[in-house]
Amino acid sequence: MTDTIISRCEARGLRMTGPRRTIARVLQESDDHPDVEELHARANAQDSGISLATVYRTVKLFEESGILERLEFGDGRARYEDADRDHHDHLIDLNSGEVIEFCDPEIEELQEKIAQKLGYQLKGHKLELYGVPLKKNG
């Protein structure tokens, strides 16, 4: 990812108000998968005038514009990440809700082989694994 969320918004012709810029910066700096309430708390810490409704509208606009990707991990919360990030898959800890990003070359290769075997050229995929931590011995 060589450019910023703000620059991609501007390139798509979105009007970047002060609150939208703050929300975009918060998203750009996030290394997790925040939901709207988390985004609001982070943005509000930088600009107390940003309402929850503004965050909802901005996230919807960014999603519809292809800037953000909406993720749902079965916990009833929509979470978001930059749609232009390098490909990765997700492992969701069912105990804590933590979302762990990973990329495994063997999994990627196997998916390509399966698609080819079925007569398809793979154009993309999403992989979400759900699990609980293994108990540690001793």
Automatic annotation (TrEMBL):
It is found in: Cytoplasm. Binds 1 Mn(2+) or Fe(2+) ion per subunit. Gene3D superfamilies: 3.30.1490.190, Winged helix-like DNA-binding domain superfamily/Winged helix DNA-binding domain (1.10.10.10). GO terms for molecular function: DNA-binding transcription factor activity; transcription cis-regulatory region binding; zinc ion binding. GO terms for cellular component: cytosol. Keywords: Cytoplasm, DNA-binding, Iron, Metal-binding, Repressor, Transcription, Transcription regulation, Zinc. One of its GO terms (biological process) is negative regulation of DNA-templated transcription. Fe cation binds at H87, D89, E108, H125. The keyword NAD does not apply. PANTHER family: FERRIC UPTAKE REGULATION PROTEIN, ZINC UPTAKE REGULATION PROTEIN. Homodimer. Belongs to the Fur family. This is Ferric uptake regulation protein. It comes from Tritonibacter mobilis F1926.
